[in-house]
Amino acid sequence: MSLSRIQSLRLAAVLEDCSDQLDILGHALTVQISRERSSAQAQEEARMNKLKRDSKYVSQLVSKLHLELEEKQSFSCLLQVVEEEERKKMAEHMKREAKRELDCRQQNLQRQKVELEQKTETLKELNKELRHKLNEQPAKIEKKKKLEEKNNQLQLQKTQKETNKAEKLLEDQLELRKKQLKEEMRVHEESTKFLQNRHEELQQLLQHWQERTKQMLQEKEQQLNNVRCKRTVILDKLMEMRRKYREMEQVVVEDREEQEKLRQKQAEVRAATKLQAWWRGCMVRRGLGSYKKAEEGKKGKKKKEGKKKKK
């Protein structure tokens, strides 16, 4: 990548100033290291030396970049340095990883070696113990056999005692059961006899109540028949009374109808009489019909009588 002449000069001036500053820093570090060499610790001295080397390396890089900017107006050397640093870092990282993996494998091998040694020691101890037990086994077997025989005898005696005790207990229980069975049989016989007597009494009482119930049913049946007969008679009387009531009701209705017709006829007669009287009065007042001639005859007679009086 190339830059213009002015940009290159500006960057060159800045880099020159940085180079001077780095030279001053390197000189100061040299002086400080020489002063503290007698009393400073080794770790601090190593850190200062590393800082001095880094400062010197950066100063050289800045000088190289300054020269390239003045001559070629580019900074490709800086890119190369960055790439080289990246490769170095990657290589160092891979180296550290490989070393870490190697250390881990060595630790695993060491741990497996220790475990193998422990297992070997354990197997040796176990083998030694088994040999010791194998030597002691016959005596132990004989002793164990005697102990088992003695234990079996004791168990047999104990079992015999327990068996005798159990037989005695069973005999006592059997005797007690026989007494209980005898008592239960006696109670059973008494209960059976009592129940039989009670059954006979209840049978007699049942027969008595059955006869009494039968008699009561007959009486109630007779009473029911009487009630039915009375009911039949009453129903007949009721039907007869209903029939008479309907007949009387029919007579009353017919009588009412006759009276109503009679009242209507009387009303019609009175109305006709009133109408005739009213009509006759109208004819008389107006001189209509036969009433007109009679009035004229009366008027002629009155005139003749008047003339006679004048003469």
UniProtKB/TrEMBL annotation:
Cite the record's Basic residues compositional bias ranges. 299-311
One GO cellular component this record assigns the protein to is: motile cilium
Transmembrane segment boundaries? none
Annotated segments matching region Disordered: 290-311
Where does the record place a coiled coil? 81-265
Pfam families to which the protein is assigned, alphabetical: IQ
**Stored PROSITE patterns:** IQ (PS50096)
What's in the keyword line of the UniProt record? Cell projection, Cilium, Coiled coil, Cytoplasm, Cytoskeleton, Flagellum
Q: Where in the cell is it found?
A: Cytoplasm, Cytoskeleton, Flagellum axoneme
- Organism domain of life: Eukaryota
- Name the GO terms of the biological process aspect: cilium organization
Q: Which family does it belong to?
A: Belongs to the DRC9 family.
**Name of the protein in its database record:** Dynein regulatory complex protein 9
Q: Give the organism the record lists.
A: Scomber scombrus
Lineage of producing organism: Eukaryota, Metazoa, Chordata, Craniata, Vertebrata
